[in-house]
Amino acid sequence: MISTDTLEDNIAFAKKENADFPLLADPTKDTAKKYGVLADYSRFKLGELANRWTFYIGADGKILDIDKKVNPANSGQDISARLKALNVPLAGK
């Protein structure tokens, strides 16, 4: 997961949610810009915010799919189903 929040904020999030997956802090938004996920909300005085998208990246480093309609309430199940549909092998298999 990539977040434009600070490292400290990501650590607090990971502890709160018992996250067992890697988190990348991207407060400079460099990575978010490269993936094209930033949206301009300056008209609401919010500046640039990252869209909540899921990128499925293959073992070869190529993007297999992008989910631009992420629903946080069921994203775990959605990710699992999409990985299965993409024939991504289970870790350690």
Task: Please give the structural blueprint.
Layout: E1 2-3, H1 7-17, E2 24-25, H2 30-35, E3 38-40, E4 48-50, E5 54-57, E6 63-67, H3 75-85
Parallel strand pairs: 1-2
Antiparallel strand pairs: 3-4, 5-6
Describe this structure in words.
By secondary structure, the chain is an alpha+beta fold. It is built from three helices and six strands. The chain has helices spanning 7-17, 30-35, 75-85; strands at 2-3, 24-25, 38-40, 48-50, 54-57, 63-67. Strands 1-2 form a two-stranded parallel sheet. The chain has a two-stranded antiparallel sheet with strand order 3-4. A two-stranded antiparallel ribbon has the order 5-6. A hairpin with a 5-residue loop joins strand 5 and strand 6. It is globular. The model has no long low-confidence stretch (mean pLDDT 91).
Describe the structure concisely for a colleague:
The chain has a two-stranded parallel ribbon with strand order 1-2.
Distance between the termini: 22 Å
Count of DSSP-assigned helices: 3
| Beta-strand percent range | 15-25%
Radius of gyration: 15 Å
**Shape descriptor:** globular
Overall mean pLDDT: 91
Helix content: 25-40%
Most strands sheet:
2 strands, parallel
Q: SSE string, helix = H, strand = E?
A: EHEHEEEEH
Give the helix/strand class: alpha+beta
Strand order of the largest sheet: 1-2
Uncertain stretches of 5 or more adjacent residues: none
